[in-house]
């Protein structure tokens, strides 16, 4: 591995999620692939909708818990081991903090486009939204989520095996794309380095 490269495990946060994404916990990774495939099959091929699946799952759970509790009281058995179903303030605060970071990044991009009139950011946003629109026309929502889950379980181990080669090719692609964006920006009349000069 070349110097200056962070290992993929560290790039993914270094915890249990990184272990699953890099297939270091093979059973959990395989279960994630199987679960994603089952959910995709239910929604895409079997014709179920998300509300019907959720309502049927909750209905089944409520029936099981009800009869479990009734039989436990009749047979002097323990009640169902339900945890305290409550969201803590810490979890809500962490989620709000993470959401705030992303919202501020989006607002900063909007500020760069609308107030600073940064054409480079404007063109990059247009390109990204165009690609998202094209991909969105080819696949529906659940297929996109399924593809995202599968790619998130296939790309990290591939990247870990071929990190130097992938970094080299991505660097070349970034240079070519940056050159094209700079050409488009220069044709619109704004120097591409204006943002750095401000």
TrEMBL record:
<protein>
    <submittedName>
        <fullName>Uncharacterized protein</fullName>
    </submittedName>
</protein>
